[in-house]
Design brief:
By secondary structure, this protein is of the alpha+beta class. Helix 4 (543-558) packs antiparallel against helix 5 (563-574) and helix 5 (563-574) packs antiparallel against helix 7. Residues 98-115, 590-618, 622-626 and 679-684 have low confidence and may be disordered.
């Protein structure tokens, strides 16, 4: 039986960061590509804005924009349109508040003039649709409830000597809002109905000048606070609280996190947005027409900003790659002297007109010669290598290939990965390439990869695997073929072509037990494996569900047709538990799925009274629910209901019905009850059996012209409870 050969692996971000790079970049996904040239900045007249204007979204995809010159907040329905669409196609904004001496203020049920504001610097909306407004004119933070249309509270940012400070920016995550102000030694953390607490700001770097002040704040998906410091000259620092991340960006105006969790730093108007993930700069974002006053994350995870023509989205910038680049790995160790290395396997995506070539260097002992400097990737922002003293040494300078010396091409494997029965995902664009390691025997190995592109496209390398030792086919030939070193070297390289095919066949034969493992067998062999137990797989099932069904099929078929087997099959397909209620268990309770409601329901099944366990169904003198004894058998026997606590799509409903038709007893009748079928209290619903109280996916958004109020749509949401001692009847509380 063939034994898998060991190999040295370079794959993760930490490993690539310990290598030596020249005109290459490390992406947050753990891939190496050519570095890109920063796009030229568009010339935009005007100074850098000193203050922002708020942007925020609520749960209904309504955008709120603080128009500072007009001293109002505009609202408009957001649409996921192209950022370069015509401005005339965008909806016109509507003012949220209008200052008025009498009557209500805009949409809000309050006539207090103090509810209006003049200078909305920043906006934030929490998960309960409470709008927080940082008013630069009054120095207060106003909290509005967008559903009940009320002004909830006013928050004053306290400063030294009891003076109120002007809030500069707000950031929200969940129900918690953070506020920063100039001169405030910390950040103010608050909720819509609770008091505020002063928390510490992230500590800036050692080179942070004293005149640098807090300008903006953002919160990561993990709840970590990020603060933007900026000095009078335009230099800026983005500092993270938990990760101690420091990003130095000139001319930064705002910070935000997109839907992928990347930190987006908006720079001055005309410059592309910087996007940082895992400590490395990712592809920049083009923001044409950005006014420099702030950015916001849209409901679909993109970054939006305000322009003179309205709201727009940032799009990936068109970048230009460098023509060539190199990455040299650190020293990998085989553990044995005079090791003859085998083949190199590279997981890469190589588009047309691009390429990857390799070069190898070996050694048996530590050399006293100068080593290649460990240069960082071109897009590194603030990634810090942990324990750099543990990084293996780099190659000696004398063994580093010069210009034109990286000549070994890579061959794309037609059979995929060299690992037995290993298949990449169907959507994976990376393929496996290989090349023989043509280097002198040695314990240590350095691999240099040279990437070439056409400035528009770049190859990407995910991992490098160097296998050892080489094949032993030469030892199976007569010694006369390998007496001379030159002849032996040629035959070793020549036989490597055939050894690759033989090694793949031996590896698959040695790991053939994978084929009968439902969790590891290739997807195309699942139907063949299912045929061992007489099971025909439904292609509508997800891959994970089909694998689980095949692994449990033998056990499920032992109880085929029972509630246990039917429930488990549906649970495997749907991914959550369902309830199977047999109708005969509800005799005397009026039935589960309906029945005849015209007659009286006679029952003595009262706990403590006439309720009992055991006995026959048709005892004389005991009335049944809905009629006589024959009606009880006709309405209850051989019937059951399947209760599914979710809204099923058309395909899911068909699959569920198909499973029930194939595996339930032929003489039974079944009803499928999902969330969409509704629930009747006291009639056919039993809490904990056929009904579940809690959040579901049964509510859909209301569409004008396509929804019917009272039937399938609901306007509004449940309001919060009234705290005792803080509410008065007639003002914020109504009875009846």
């Amino acid at each position: 039986m063939a034994v898998a050969r060991p190999f040295a692996l370079v794959r993760t971000i930490d490993q690539w960061a310990r290598c030596s790079h020249r005109d290459t970049a490390v992406l947050a996904s753990g891939e190496v590509s050519l570095a890109w040239v920063d796009p030229e900045r568009e010339d935009v007249a005007g100074p850098l804005p000193d203050r922002g204007s708020g942007l925020a979204f609520d749960s209904s995809c309504v955008l709120y924009h603080g128009a500072r010159p007009e001293g109002r907040i505009e609202r408009l329905l957001w649409a996921a349109v192209d950022a370069f669409g015509l401005p005339t196609a965008q909806p016109q904004p509507v003012a949220l508040l209008h200052r008025s001496a009498e009557g209500p203020v805009g949409d809000f049920s309050t006539a207090e003039p103090s509810a209006a504001f003049v200078d909305p610097l920043s906006l934030a909306v929490d998960d309960d649709d409470r709008l927080f407004v940082a008013d630069g004119a009054t120095g207060r933070i106003l909290v509005f409830d967008l559903w009940s249309r009320r002004l909830l509270r006013r928050v004053v940012v306290p400063g030294a000597g009891g003076q109120a400070l002007v809030p500069l920016d707000l950031a929200c995550r969940g129900r918690t809002v953070w506020a920063v102000a100039r001169g405030l030694d910390g950040a103010l953390r608050m909720e819509a109905r609770r008091g505020s607490v002063l928390v510490d700001l992230p500590t800036g770097p050692a080179d942070l000048p004293p005149e640098a002040s807090v300008r903006r704040v953002a919160v990561s998906p993990a709840g970590e606070l990020f603060v933007l410091y900026r000095d009078a000259g335009g230099a800026a620092w983005v500092v993270g609280a938990g990760t101690h991340q420091v990003v130095r960006v000139g001319g930064a105006t705002d910070v935000e996190f997109d839907g992928d969790g990347a930190l987006v730093v908006a720079r001055e108007p005309g410059a592309d947005f910087l996007r940082v993930r895992a400590g490395f700069a990712d592809m920049p974002l083009k923001a044409r027409g950005y006014d420099g006053r702030g950015i916001v994350r849209t409901p679909d995870g993109r970054i939006g900003f305000w322009t003179a023509d309205g709201f727009r989205h940032a799009v990936p910038a068109r970048i230009r790659y460098r023509p060539t680049g190199r990455v040299t790995t650190y020293r990998v160790d085989s553990g044995e002297h005079q090791m003859e290395w085998g083949r190199l396997f590279v997981e890469a995506c190589i588009p047309h007109h691009t390429g990857v070539r390799a070069h190898f260097a070996t050694a048996d002992d530590d050399l006293d010669e100068p080593a290649l400097p460990r240069t960082l990737p071109a897009n590194l922002v603030d990634y810090v290598v942990r324990r750099p003293d543990l990084s293996p040494p780099m190659a000696p300078v004398v063994q580093v290939p010069g210009p034109g010396q990286v000549v070994r091409p890579l061959h794309r494997r037609e059979t995929g990965r060299e690992l037995p029965w290993s298949r990449p995902a169907a959507t994976d664009r990376f393929e496996t390439f290989e090349a023989p390691i043509d280097a002198a025997p040695g314990r240590y190995l350095w691999v240099t990869l040279e990437l070439t592109g056409n400035e528009r496209f770049s190859p990407k390398v995910r991992s490098v695997r160097a296998g050892y030792p080489t094949h032993d086919l030469l030892q199976r030939l007569p010694r006369t073929f390998s007496r001379e070193p030159a002849v032996a070297s040629f035959l070793t390289r020549f036989l490597a072509m055939f050894e690759g095919t033989l090694a793949d066949l031996d590896g698959r034969a040695g790991e053939r037990q994978i084929l009968v493992d439902p969790r590891a067998t290739p997807e195309e062999l699942l139907p063949w494996l299912a045929s061992f137990v007489g099971l025909v797989l439904d292609e509508r099932w997800p891959d994970a569900a089909r694998r689980t069904l095949v692994s449990e099929a033998a056990e499920l078929f032992r109880f085929r047709g029972t509630p246990r087997a039917l429930g488990r099959m549906l649970e495997i397909y749907l991914g959550f538990a369902i309830v199977i209620a047999e109708q005969f268990r509800f005799r005397g309770l009026g039935g589960l799925a309906g029945g005849d409601d015209t007659g009286p329901v006679l029952s003595t099944s009262v706990l403590g009274g006439g309720f009992r366990v055991g006995g026959t169904v048709g005892d004389a003198g005991v009335p049944t629910a809905g009629g006589d004894l024959d009606d009880g058998f006709r309405t209850n026997a051989h019937r059951f209901s399947v209760v599914i606590p979710a809204v099923l799509s058309e395909e899911q409903a068909d699959v569920v019905r198909d499973v029930l038709d194939r595996h339930r007893p032929a003489h039974t009748m079944v009803d499928v009850c999902s969330v969409g079928t509704g629930f009747r209290v006291g009639g056919t619903g039993y809490l904990g059996i056929s009904s579940i109280i809690g959040p579901t996916s049964g509510f859909t958004p209301l569409r004008l012209g396509g929804s019917l109020l009272g039937a399938g749509s609901t306007v509004g949401r449940a309001g919060p409870g009234a705290p005792l001692g803080t509410s008065r009847v007639g003002r914020g509380i109504r009875i009846g």
